[in-house]
Design goal:
It is built from five helices and five strands, in the order βαβαβαβαβα. By secondary structure, the protein is an alpha/beta fold. Helix 3 links the parallel strand 3 and strand 4 (about 100).
């Protein structure tokens, strides 16, 4: 099983890229992990057409066995320990890949909401789509240290 973070759009800020690189390297000690940017080139379009184009790109990449988790403001807000417990249950039961998805500026298309098996909010606060990437990777790393009873999470 592979765990992946998929993000609609490019990561442009160098400090975000650098931070993501740090956590991706650390995560390699715990699981098979990867990040993927989903680039949808549309200009002068409506929010609905943009979400439609993003949906098509996402659906094309998803396999039927993938477990899709949206990083979404409407999701549950687990504690770090709760997130670690959620991951352990999925690691024990899934046969496909675990995909965490950060949407575009307009959110997710309804069909993506329907396809998703879970939704997680990183906070009740709002973060930029760029910051969510880094915050999520830190929380994923924290969860892995919790599962291994390592001191990072204290």
């Amino acid at each position: 099983m592979k765990t992946e973070l998929w993000c609609v759009g490019k990561t442009e800020d160098s400090y975000i890229k650098e931070g993501m690189g740090v956590y991706q390297k650390r995560l390699g000690n715990y699981l098979t992990f990867g990040c993927k940017e989903i680039i949808v080139a549309t200009k002068n379009t409506t929010a609905e057409l943009q979400k439609e184009a993003e949906k098509n790109a996402i659906i094309k990449l998803l396999k039927p066995t993938d477990f899709l988790i949206l990083l979404d403001e409407k999701g549950s807000t687990p504690s770090s320990k709760g997130f670690a417990d959620f991951l352990q249950k999925k690691f024990n039961s899934l046969s496909g890949n675990m995909i965490f998805l950060v949407g575009g500026a307009y959110g997710f298309h309804d069909e993506i909401y329907e396809r998703a098996q879970a939704k997680i909010a990183l906070s009740e606060m709002t973060f930029t789509h760029q910051m969510v990437r880094l915050i999520f990777l830190e929380q994923l790393y924290r969860a892995m240290t919790i599962l291994r009873n390592e001191p990072y999470h204290h």
